[in-house]
Amino acid sequence: MAQTEGAEKSGTRAEMREETERAILDAAEGIFAEAGFGGATMQAIADSCGLPKANLHYYFSSKEKLYRRVVERIFTVWLEAADSFDTDATPEVALRRYIERKMQLSRDYRYGSKVWANEVLHGAPIIQDYLETTLRSWTETRVAVIRRWIAQGAIRPVEPRWLLYMIWATTQHYADFAHQIETLNHGPLEADQWDDATETVCSIILRGIGIDPGAPA
């Protein structure tokens, strides 16, 4: 009985710690997105998640460590989205799935996208290792797949990197420039507007490489 109670308490403590860390990361993501790394303070982050600053330092001893953890979380989410680019699927299925997932990330993780964009704009001092290893490896494998599609005559000849950069720029615009979009839209995009925007991006990009969306295979 005592062992069971001890295990339950241990499990509860672990769950509470995980929940607190998640709250800290959520708050830090928002602060870093709005103020940048230089402008963000541990006090502002602590205030945002309702913790004493000393408690925040218990979980993350420095702003640098907290920032890197925020970036790592964003990168993990984006890598999961990258997996939706199924290298065994047809060009239409693979690209549509990837674009849809990227658009959903811009809707769900707008602050995370801004943190990433700010980091890259400043020369990626924290995440350069990610760019040179994991992201470069992922990009090279997709470039090879796109070249295979071209060789098979499945899509028209394009430079694969330009295609990928166009997808990233277009989909991430909905997060990085969300304020501009919401101002021009007289408010946040509704669900049907997100669906329409996603379909528009998919249709224009697919047609641009010679795929007629929805046409019989």
TrEMBL record:
Organism, as annotated: Pararhodobacter zhoushanensis
Domain HTH tetR-type, first and last residues per copy: 18-78
PROSITE patterns recorded: HTH_TETR_2
DNA-binding region: 41-60
Superkingdom as given in the UniProt entry: Bacteria
Protein name: TetR/AcrR family transcriptional regulator
UniProt-listed InterPro entries: Homeodomain-like_sf, HTH-type_TetR-like_transc_reg, HTH_TetR, Tet_transcr_reg_TetR-rel_C_sf, Tscrpt_reg_YcdC_C
Signal sequence, start to end: none
Keywords: DNA-binding
